[in-house]
Every structure is written in structure tokens, then in C-alpha cells.
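Researcher: I'm preparing a figure for a lab meeting and need a structural model of a single chain. I don't have an experimental structure, so a prediction will have to do for now. The sequence is pasted below. Please return the structure as C-alpha cells so I can convert it later.
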Amino acid sequence: MRKEAAKREIKQERAARTRVEIMEAAITLFARRGILATTMAELAKAIRMTPGALYWHFPTKEDLLLAAIDELHERFLNEFKELAGEQRKLTARQQLEAFLERTQQFLRYHRQYGIFFGMVAAESADTNDRVAESIREKLGLYVEMAANIIRHGQNKTKEFRADVEAHVAAHAIIGGFLGSLMHQNLFRESVAYDPTYTALKALLVDGIVTR
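Model: Understood. Here is the structure written out cell by cell.
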């Protein structure tokens, strides 16, 4: 009985690893080619898996996209676990700068994740309601994280301008990061990543600080 349980556990662990490997490959392929241009057959070939095995893990391309979005969302949130405990000690400006720096660092080491979100968001808005809603839900949470910091700086510490609408500014921040990543990727031969984001952070923060 114990052997059967052990075998079952090993099989489940192997299936979980395979699932993550499929999502990782899919994220890279979708980031390069987009949703419509990427087929499940091409993905199966890229990861040296039979189409039947791929469909066993993800019955449809939509299922794979939704799983990949959820996975990347969890990875992004993990970047902020340490910061969450330190936030009360920081000023609103320091909190916003820390949020931007963590986002910058995440995208620096995982460029394909940000490009994946940008590509999928752009395509799904007009082609797939379920995928678009999943993207909106996740990005909406990041927007709310930034908006809460801005509201704190407006209402509590008075560090940020009161005439800036926090929710709109937060959308500009998240959209600015994704848009700049896509833009910098296009001009990557002549425009470096870090200077681009350093300039973006300076504009975003200095633009809402009380003078």
C-alpha cells in the first residue's frame, strides 16, 4: 500500500513538473508570436511532446493561457512578500519607489513574462473574453497595489499631489511599465533596459510628489 502511495506521489510530482515546463515553453512562444499565430501543435513540437500528451495537460489553448497567466501572477506577487512586512516603516514615496524597483527587477530577469502579458493583453482584448478578463483581473490587482500607496501619500503623509487621481495614476504606472518593456524590446539594439526604467521611475514618482 505504501509503495502504491509513493508511486502515485512520484507520478503526481512528475506531472506537476511537466505542467510547469509546458507553461514555461508556452509563455516564451506566446511572447514571441502572440496568441493567434501560436498553435498547440507547434508548442508540442517545441517541447518535444506529442500533441496528445499536451492536450492531456491542457485540453485547449485557452486553458493553457489561463494557467500561464495564473502562474505568472503568483510569481510576480512573490516579489512583494518581503516588502509587505516593511511597508509600514517606509514613507509613501519610499513605498512607491520600492514597488517600482521590484517590478523593474522582476521584468529585468524575466523579460518574456512582461512581453507575454503585453502580447496576450493586446490580442485578447478583441479576441478572447475569458483570457482578457483574467489579464484584467491580475493587472487590476497591481493597479490597486499602486493606487493604495498613492492614496496613502495623498491622505495620510501628504507627500503626493491631491489633484492626481490615484486609480488613474496607478493605471499609468502599470501600463507604462508594460508599454516601455515592449518599446525597449523593439529598440533593444540601441536602447538599454535599466536606463529606460530609471527614467520612467523618475517621471512617475517626481510627477506626483508635492512641491
